[in-house]
Amino acid sequence: MTEAAKNVAAIRKLMEERGIDAYVIPMADFHQSEYVGEHFKAIRFVTGFTGSYATVAITKDDAGLWTDGRYFTQANTELEGSGVHLMKMFVDDTPGTVEWVAMNVPEGGKVAFDGRVLSMGDGQAYEEALAGKNVTIDYEQDLVSEVWENRPPLSEKPAFFLEEKYTGENTGHKLERVREKMAEVGATAHIVASLDDVAWLFNTRGDDIDFFPLVLAYALVTKDEAKLYIDERKLNDELRAEYEKYHIEVCPYNDIYEDAKKLGEDEVVLIDPMKMNYALYKNLNCKVVEGANPTILMKAMKNPVEIENIRKAELKDSVALTKFICWVKKNYNKEKITELTCVDKLTWFRQQQEGYIRDSFEPLQAFGPNAAMMHYSPTPETDATLEEGGMLLSDTGGGYYEGSTDITRTTILGSITPEMKKYYTAVYRAMQNLSVANFLYGNHGWSLDVLARKPIWDLNKDFQCGTGHGFGYLGSIHEPPTGFRWYIVPSKNEHHQFEEGMCITNEPGIYEEGYFGIRIENNLVTVKGEKNKYGQFMHFETLNFVPIDLDGIDPEELTKSEREWLNDYHAQCYEKLAPYMDEEELEWLKEYTRAI
Prior knowledge:
Elements: H1 3-17, E1 22-26, H2 42-47, E2 55-59, E3 63-67, H3 72-78, E4 85-88, H4 97-104, E5 110-112, H5 120-130, E6 136-138, H6 143-147, E7 160-161, H7 164-167, H8 171-184, E8 189-192, H9 195-202, E9 204-205, E10 217-222, E11 226-230, H10 237-245, E12 248-251, H11 256-262, E13 268-271, H12 278-282, E14 287-290, H13 294-300, H14 304-331, H15 339-351, E15 356-359, E16 364-367, E17 391-396, E18 398-400, E19 403-404, E20 407-412, H16 418-435, E21 438-440, H17 445-457, E22 468-470, E23 479-484, E24 503-506, E25 509-512, E26 516-519, E27 522-532, E28 535-542, H18 560-577, H19 583-592
Helix pairs in contact: 14-15, 16-17
């Protein structure tokens, strides 16, 4: 029996003792974060699945793991022997977790979970789905902690202050803006439970989640008060002084639950169902207004200071990634280079850049067949060696005081097959078509996504994920409320119209299981164009400047405009990067930014 199978059996034993018919384990922390700290990696412990997006449901005689197309291949491998089967989200008639649980729990049965790690929205969905079966919902069952010996504790790492020269706005002004939005919906209080929103509002960053500079904290904002719930040991004198300046009261981390109970019947609290946990919601006895956290849209629309800083971060990151690609192309056939070698080498190049803090997410270095797993990260057991005739997919990013990046390049090693070159060219065309979009204000990602999909759909191929996502300023690398995706995913807040200052990735791809994966990703910022009698036109500005591997491009497959854009982009790459290259790198850069 595998360790995962033993863990599932241990969970079932506790379920039987407590009369639980179905137990749900989300991939989440107390704040509904997409990526979580070591303490919260319960699904990895129970099932062996290491991806970042999943939900597990266990019944007395069945167990399923729900995840999306990014992780199908990976999940099939990692779940083997666990007794947990893969449920492919958004494929055919696969039922969702709530629907599956409702079908499998008996009349008068019991469904349980730890309500601190389940979203309010999901908790309400269980209430609705189970209402007709007289099912008890117990949201105070943390079975994983009882099974997981030596579970890692909550992080105690220090927080730090992000100065106004980086944020462009102080906390006092941000609180004023939030209070204005509260007044618009008649709210007298607002609970902020999502880490990136708390970080943005208080200009505070931390190190409580690997790769993400966020700190475990909640906030309560009223008409004339602001409370920050955080482990006070994490605060330095600079942060304390900032909080005092804006009359922010620092409270113990877990006191938010009791303070939520104290909100009286005459209070009206604004809460975001997708950004608050179910247990905290159940502690509220006051009137509730449900709506998106006002900070979500505020932080997505980067101000001029942030955008100028992001441009600086993107240039630094482009220098690092270009030096890395040059090193790979020149050395893969001279010495043994593996995926993990590449992880360390690229991080080293980034560390040479001023203002570097840490990588902005777990580096994805994937060679050959491993690249077909969209979010594969190498381990000592899977670490592939780079070889002639293959492709290295590098999806990585850097976190700098000037902002965060998320960039992918697929590097050609030697000669590749005509089929691979055809697909590589199609992926470039997809990325380019979206980059040059000119559209009227009011458009959303779902209305523009087809621009990227068309060159790939023309080959009767598709990639089973979104084409791009918003990205934060030293926050979440996947930032709502905008994204490129032609289909609706209810759990993802990514369908707001494009606003000036929104930063978003553009990353189409083609993935052939057991063969290869190709992705080319640039970072974009939304800017205003011409305004005329038809309305306000918008377009995207490309922020990063890393050569696209010409060894993978078939010029005969390009239209005139696609060729011209690539030549112009490469001319800009050369102009911006040349001052930072040594003699050997400069010679290589000139060759790989040549006009075609």
